[in-house]
Design brief:
alpha+beta; 8 helices; single chain; 7-stranded mixed beta sheet
Length: 419
């Protein structure tokens, strides 16, 4: 651990910092005096914040100058506050929410898209925190299969935010998300229909919540997306726009070609704005993103700051039913539905070791492709001789349902050791 260093941040400027990738090198931050934010979330004075290994973040002083203490930080650099480029946008969105409150209509329904490493997640945090600061509730949906910021990869997850900004350390991990399980981190022509279906299921639940809780109707929603903007990726963006009835499209990364494509298709129903690349955004190699997927699964079981405790759970095979969704016509299926929603019962075997599974809320098998999930687990061992399956679960409580959805995502033994 390196010695603590104090830094003075002038009003209108920010302090960019990084941490080493090794797990022992978390950056420790403490606000000593003044007012300081991290991507729109205000720091509490004298609270100790830990930024995990591999973090690249920025502390800003948008209102007043401040003094902070950093431990283990490297590549520390002071510069102009990057968030200033979003202030006009955030003001416009909050005006739309005030107008919606007066007319009891829906607030802005926002799509954030763009290539990888253009600052999409950072922009989403600014939008959420700005809405919360103005007293609004807001729904956040992360439809990024590979780098989901709410829960584990391979999901489409939503959280309903009210009264509290995005936690700097925990993010969304302590919230109870509405989660639909896609079961893969890769979009293909065979499963894009399932992706669209789960987006529509998410949108239907969000609309129902908005009708019952008017504050979420007024606050609107923001949807984060994958960093794939051409070919099938562009198709996915269009499906999201239609599923969530998007009326505001924000394109990060100064991608005018994407802006023209979406303006041509949706210009009459949605406002399309091309934004410059977030100056705090950093490029990350593909192997780092893969490593981060493993970290997201680990965070699900162990927690980030608040410690959680994963448990091993042995369940008789007679009490667990494995299913796959989107099995295609060449498999025995339970109903006549589109290929991407067909389900098939799967007999557990040793090939399922280390596979991520989801516990479905479905009450009958036919509901599995349409139902949200209660949580996830990892298959640790399939004991064919004793007809038992050992799972890693986030708690010792029995699963609420017996229907488990098999994914195409697996972890490693080394990753499990960190749970």
């Amino acid at each position: 651990m390196t010695a603590a260093r104090e830094h003075y941040i002038q009003r209108g400027r920010e302090l960019k910092f990084e941490s080493d990738a090794s797990r022992e090198s978390a950056v420790i931050v403490r606000l000593l005096e003044g007012y300081c934010e991290c991507f729109g979330t205000a720091l509490e004075r004298e609270r100790v914040y830990q930024f995990p290994a591999g973090t690249k973040a920025a502390l800003s002083a948008p209102r007043d100058s401040c003094r902070v203490e950093l431990v283990n930080a490297k590549e520390v650099q002071e510069r102009l506050w990057s968030g200033i480029q979003y202030q006009e946008l955030l003001s416009d969105l909050n005006k739309q929410r005030r107008d919606a409150a007066q007319g009891q209509t829906f607030g802005p329904r926002i799509l954030v898209c763009g290539s990888v490493d253009t600052g999409k997640s950072t922009l989403c945090k600014y939008i959420i925190n700005s809405a919360i600061n103005e007293g609004h509730a807001i729904t956040y949906t992360d439809a990024d299969l590979g780098q989901n910021g709410i829960t584990v990869p391979g999901t489409i997850a939503s959280v309903f935010m009210e009264g509290k900004q995005v936690d700097i350390e925990e993010g969304f991990t302590l919230l109870l998300p509405l989660t639909f399980f896609f079961g893969d981190v890769t979009l293909t022509s065979q499963n894009v229909g399932k992706y669209h279906h789960l987006c529509k299921q998410s949108a239907a639940c969000i609309r129902a919540n908005a009708e019952n809780r008017p504050q979420f109707k007024v606050g609107g929603l923001v949807v984060n997306t994958m960093g794939w903007t051409n070919g099938l990726g562009l198709t996915a963006l269009k499906l999201i726009i239609e599923a969530f009835d998007i009326d505001t499209i924000l394109i990060a990364g100064d991608d005018h070609q994407l802006g023209e494509a979406l303006q041509s298709r949706y210009g009459e129903q949605a406002q399309v704005r091309v934004l410059p690349k977030q100056t705090a955004a950093v490029s990350r190699p593909s192997n780092f993103r893969k490593q981060q997927r493993g970290e997201r699964v680990a965070d699900y079981f162990r927690g980030v700051r608040a410690p959680l405790h994963a448990v091993k759970m042995v369940i008789p095979m007679s009490e667990v039913l494995f299913y796959q969704v989107g099995v295609g016509k060449d498999q025995q299926t339970t109903s006549k539905v589109p290929d991407y929603l067909q389900i098939a019962r799967v007999e557990p075997d040793t090939s399922h070791h280390l596979a991520i599974v989801a516990v479905s809320h479905a009450s009958i098998p036919e509901e599995i492709p349409h139902a949200n999930i209660a949580g996830i687990g990892v298959v640790l061992k399939v004991d064919l001789e004793n007809r038992e399956i050992t799972f890693v679960m986030p708690s010792g409580n029995p699963p609420p349902r017996r229907y488990f959805i098999l994914s195409r995502i697996a972890v490693t033994y080394e990753e499990i050791q960190r749970y």
